[in-house]
Fold these 3 entries.
Entry 1:
Amino acid sequence: MKDIAYVNGNFLDINDAKVSVKDRGLLFGDGVYEVAGVIEGVLIDNWAHLRRLERSLDYISLELPIDLKTLSEVQKELIFRNNMKEGTLYLHVTRGESQQREFEFPKDVAPSIVMFVQHKKILHISQDKLRAKVMTLPDLRWKRRDIKSIALLAQVLAKQTAHENGCDEVWMYEDNFITEGGSSNAFIIQKNKLISRKTNETILSGITRQAVLKLVEQESLLFEERPFSIEEAYQASEAFYTSASVFVMPVISIDEKIIGDGNPGPLTIKLRNLYENFAKSFINQENNE
Amino acid sequence: MKDIAYVNGNFLDINDAKVSVKDRGLLFGDGVYEVAGVIEGVLIDNWAHLRRLERSLDYISLELPIDLKTLSEVQKELIFRNNMKEGTLYLHVTRGESQQREFEFPKDVAPSIVMFVQHKKILHISQDKLRAKVMTLPDLRWKRRDIKSIALLAQVLAKQTAHENGCDEVWMYEDNFITEGGSSNAFIIQKNKLISRKTNETILSGITRQAVLKLVEQESLLFEERPFSIEEAYQASEAFYTSASVFVMPVISIDEKIIGDGNPGPLTIKLRNLYENFAKSFINQENNE
């Protein structure tokens, strides 16, 4: 079966899912996006994603042409049509198709909504993949990293460099302090204390990060919200990163420096288990609806 | 007559000119572009644009699937098919369409080439439009501004803010010094000396800027290549900006502060005339080929 995508009101075979070459998402990166995890056909923490989408849209002065409830119904329909069990659902909203290519916002142009799914293991990821190598690189991105925009070239280039160096993720730094991962939020553990940078314009407010921090609070774990340096990361007892598609990913090395004993740390494993249970709770909720 | 666009080998009615929702230009801003001016159906300084395209492609490790000569033939064909006299030709190359949305470069994916034209006055712009108002705003862009990437959201938002404030262009600044315009290079004149920032990673190497600087040299005009402050811009005797679609645009105010006597300055007009003649020289070259 071919994947089905959603494009502005239509469910289409992925090969027919196209947008105009005048779409401002294509010409300017003028759009914002979300990626939510799916397990057992159910979206994980989706309302937190949709609320962040609303904030991103607001930051770029773009109005969603349908309400979030309707958008979430479309998401569910897309999962159903793809008979999707596990993976991610990608969703973006751009400023639509304007006849003239001008930087300024066009008048009377409807935003363009695109969604598609990607089948992959996110909960049932194999144990031997839960061992991420991280490379650090300078953070070259723009200054409004709180906006989840589709203008992602800096992240593409950074993650590619990490990949070419045998690493799974990049941790970007600015003034010697880690900002965040190329597509994730970065955490370190010093003894039994978690450290993670405060979210503001310098990094994206990760949905999985937020959920993990709620679990940290529920479990009364020690937590300090502050930037940490590259050197602190090297010397951490544990390290991990979070995202909608990897949940809680243990880091075993940073710039080839082994973290802890080179295996996923105990507190990291505990947090992954807690997050997995949190993720599964959405399946139960859905089934009880 | 409907506009004709070029998409990966095909000349299409603009309404049929589409790309996949999986095009990495759309999903990541993973592509680079050029806009060249056209007068009397002839591309202005196009080889300088194509050579810059090659540099941009090289910076993002993307290989053009056809050679520049062939690309320029396609450009000419597109102008011919659109019966285009005056305006701009837009051209971009993205990393193509990959089935999986992953940040890392996909393997065995052909880059995607898109071109379209925009009819508008660039040489025959009316005199009353040669009076630009400029607004200054912080430069929020990423650090590799020498790459002419399609990830342009920062410029979109800045130019929109300028537009909402009744201005024609934004001049962005960093550490109190002007970097460049939202889609142009910035110049000021102190007495009879031109000042313009040196091109490096902090700004794009403008093609029109380069041509103007060559004219400045030929005419033995005074020129200093260095950053200038916002305060210096306010107090300049003349100011202007350059781009492929506005040539040399006189600035009459910056942040509502009147520049000179509030009219295009004499040296600016001289440079515009020199550049117009330079632009027209391409028509003669083409006709003699």
Entry 2:
Amino acid sequence: MQYSSALLETLIAELTRLPGLGRKSAQRIAFHLLRSPEADSQRLASAIVELKANVRDCSICGNVTETDPCALCADSRRDATVICVVEQPMDVLALERTGEFHGRYHVLKGALSPVDGIGPDQLRLKELLDRVRGNGVAEVIVATNPTAQGEATALYIARLLQSEPAVKVTRIARGVPMGSDLEFSDQITLARALTGRKEL
Amino acid sequence: MQYSSALLETLIAELTRLPGLGRKSAQRIAFHLLRSPEADSQRLASAIVELKANVRDCSICGNVTETDPCALCADSRRDATVICVVEQPMDVLALERTGEFHGRYHVLKGALSPVDGIGPDQLRLKELLDRVRGNGVAEVIVATNPTAQGEATALYIARLLQSEPAVKVTRIARGVPMGSDLEFSDQITLARALTGRKEL
């Protein structure tokens, strides 16, 4: 190891800090950058710096954006009466890719997790209540993750919005994923799929 | 997609160009960078730029280095009579990690592959011959990959060095990898392991 280039080791160490990259993947990327044209490296490096310098949170929905409000909140064609609540900006990307949702989003920036010290005050829940209150919102779709934390957050939101009886609170369906095999589904998912069954 | 930040999309696109990173991993890394302190992003970005600006090839062994000759070629404690030939700088890292080799290296920068237009002239073979010729080299260990290209390159090197009868050319052992299961070994590896058997 001591015989390798120190700069190479530095880059590998920095890459290893990124999620999902182990030592070997980091090494492969570092050597790839070493072999590729300098313009490519420059573009990557400046994309990293530009991102941190210019991307902020939308003051309305909390999603990542360069403009405030974000393009989504500023788009008058999106249905303002339906708000989809998600944990993270990445979830907005995932939902947009389905092309099935035409309302607005609200990013909580996490989920309730007392173990990690994340209570209601650490999430954008007050902002959600303010948005919903007297703004003609008809439905709040809670699309937090189907995990213990996500489910707890969903229940909390349902209770929070009981103060607004005009607003319907719904939860995305949980069941067996498309393309999967019943045989390999875990029992909790399968139980959910059974209780959530619908008439054909 | 069009509703996400353009800078975020740019970074994700740049990350997707790296080996081993698909759209989802790239997304995860981009969001991670967005959440992590600015100093971390800066360090990563400058590590990328510094690497391209300062790392070059050692004029002797061809390994990546910031100094020429590299620390390995400059180290008088390393046995100069044994040269281990590898395809890529990454292979030097892998061999150094074993702690079993105390000689010098020679990086070919690839392997013979007529299909890809890589002939002997595209590899650092002339440099190898020059290094071996009349420099007191006793053994050349060919540690190219156990692939069709690597094997062809090994044979080529053996024939090339026939002009230097004082130099012994050896090839690293190919057989069943440690910790593996015979049952799952492919037949070529198993055949190699049989023909390469040694007395206990």
Entry 3:
Amino acid sequence: MNSSNSSTDLSTLKSSAQDAIDNKTKPPGSLGQLESVAVQLATIQRTLKPVVDPARVIVFGADHGVTEEGVSAFPAEVTVQMMANFAAGGAAVCVLSKSANASLEVIDVGVNGDLSEFSAIVQQKVTRGTANLAKGAAMTHEQLDSALQVGREAIVRAADQGVQCVGLGEMGIGNTTSAAILTGLLCAQNADAAADVTGRGTGLSDEQMPVKQRVVAEAMQRLESLSDDPMECLRQAGGLEIAAIVGAMLEAPAHSMVVIVDGFIVTSAALVACQIRPAVRDNLLFAHRSAEIGHALALDTLNAEPLLQLGMRLGEGSAAAMAIPLVRGAAAIMSDMASFAEAGVSTGE
Amino acid sequence: MNSSNSSTDLSTLKSSAQDAIDNKTKPPGSLGQLESVAVQLATIQRTLKPVVDPARVIVFGADHGVTEEGVSAFPAEVTVQMMANFAAGGAAVCVLSKSANASLEVIDVGVNGDLSEFSAIVQQKVTRGTANLAKGAAMTHEQLDSALQVGREAIVRAADQGVQCVGLGEMGIGNTTSAAILTGLLCAQNADAAADVTGRGTGLSDEQMPVKQRVVAEAMQRLESLSDDPMECLRQAGGLEIAAIVGAMLEAPAHSMVVIVDGFIVTSAALVACQIRPAVRDNLLFAHRSAEIGHALALDTLNAEPLLQLGMRLGEGSAAAMAIPLVRGAAAIMSDMASFAEAGVSTGE
């Protein structure tokens, strides 16, 4: 596509897609949000016959040094245990991806444990977990670059295999702390707002909550001056899996890849990716409104209207998996429904 | 099952199902509404390994004499045209059922036109549309009985063919008027509340709305004294397709059939069915919160929490189709996820 014409072409395509939807055999607008998703799919894939299949859920797993502060209800070793559970097919994201007719790819981008025995896991460990963000930068520059590259490669690999739509998910005990800090910094809140972005994660008790809030508030205070440098915020506060997701998002537009954002943690990666390159936003669909506090603020900042509101707060990619059939339905409306003219149905006019 | 023990058994089963969900490898409650749906599925099917497949969407089509009052944005002949569109596979419910991996059954229970050429349509026409409810009873007693029977037979047929879950949908120009009257009567509103249950249906103009509101208000006034007789309300105000859906719902429990309620019109049938036999409610899941005014009141009355909120207002069974993959996901959680013990994952305790 000629770059000088691309924005005109895109606007023409978007308007053709809207016309096509308006002429399908249904009252205008009566399929609600599925219609706007259908138009977005057409725009991403630059066709009036968008497709979602094959679809894939990609889960990036990594550990977090900040867990030594006591910010999680579950012990840090659960990351490696859950990665094994993913490999064995027993986790929520496994059964939900399967039920949604999507393949599942699990990537070790930085788990603090040996997962090399699992052939079902893509072995791309950058390092055994981040440094404790409460005491300094979570990643070195080299680690950040490597993690971003792992994410980029996942999208290139998916595109090479014909995948049209990826749901992005994560596993990493402690990562709601990173997501809270990134959300706080990038949604332009000051450190006083730490309580508004710090939730219970996997189920933190009343006793543990003040610890997590203190860690988030102190990190926000330390990093406040960096809030216009999303990449540095990511290096300081992020997890390796969050960095990989940012890399995946940055790579998606070049492959016309539809990206479904899972929940709070993946949305925090979207904040980073969209501030680095705003065009990424066009490729993103949002799976759900998480029960985790802080997600609403991140969604508002991204002007995102999620597909589901089921009170889910698991992560992994579980909500992204559940959103795939809705996105598939939206594609089917655009690609397969008859127009009034084709079906010989009278319009309301 | 011994009837004297059945309520105890049911409560034991429900509690076992809740225990099973709580021991899956995820923080308790973190899959939100999918968890309560999973427990409901287990309870309906009386097993800790519930299944949704094969799933089917059933669309009942019929015409409405009340259209001669001018209550719809679309002309009455659109019902027969859309039934043909269903048979040809071009309508929203066709492509959405297919994308949701559900079969589709379309039943003519009372369309005012000849659909006999379409082998894809189940031919069970009771009569060519209802009488005009603005002038008297919409159906005779015999017509009502026949329409109820058509719905019952659809569930028996589905059960015989191994179907585990049905989404119920409808097609009938004018049927939001019937649904509004039924909702108004059965949610214990007086005729003054007609405006609160009367929506724009397929897209009624500002000029046409007062006509529809007057028709609804006058019918509610005429039938107010019958509001404790849901079957007579149905005969007076209902459509043949709404009666068939009531019949289907009444039949569902005997076959442990999971029923997904589509939108406003199918929910009005649920009001009738659940007032006739409260146990029907246990088998019902609700697909979505329709944009049609009046649906919220009906959902509240049924204590129903729908799965989707996408601003849809098409009917047909389109939202029921989109809800099937979510219900499938809920079944997969219960049936296929590993427990903490099975997976060797540490709990948060």
